[in-house]
Design brief:
single chain, about 40% strand, about 200 residues, 2 domains, globular, 6-stranded antiparallel β-barrel, mainly beta, Elongation Factor Tu (Ef-tu), domain 3, 3 helices
Length: about 200
Amino acid sequence: MFTGTIKATGKIVNLEATQEHAKLIISSPQTDLKNLPLGASIAVNGICLTVTNCTATDFTVDVMPETMKRTNLGKLQLNNLVNLEPAISLNDKLDGHIVAGHVDTTATLIKKTENENSLELQFRVPARYAPLIVEKGSIAIDGIGLTVTMAKDDLFGVSLIPYTIAHTTLANYQLNDLVNIETDMIGRYVIKQLQIWKKEYVR
């Protein structure tokens, strides 16, 4: 389980990839990697992955076919930066959103607007996921827990404060770049139950 509060960014220093599988080595000197035991969960761009090797300065994760198909990891290249968040423990403070690290889909960045103290981003998401995104609701974009500022049809927007701009990768993205999307966990289950109810009881 994660909170969408990015603890550090990391750089991909080694990348072995096919169309269906990848092995990443990620370096992040500002992260206390000694606290990442083998088998630990870590969110990389919002994707819950398992640490398979760890040194004082970097760690290794494997990426399986389902993850390659559903996320933007297949687009990553050597030296790209990624957002990192280690999994929380039961006694940690829940300071953020509830994020599972299970990416639903990707969205395309279609607009960037710079304001005096914020950066507004607008994305297009596949239509089937649009009902899961609501204005003022929660969403995780490449692992960053954010509040939806606008949602209409297959478009939604978020606004980044200076801290988020400085401590994550999101402000560096260009138009048409893909980002990983995890919709609000509670909203997913509500809609699923409504679909079941409609199917079973509405005639």
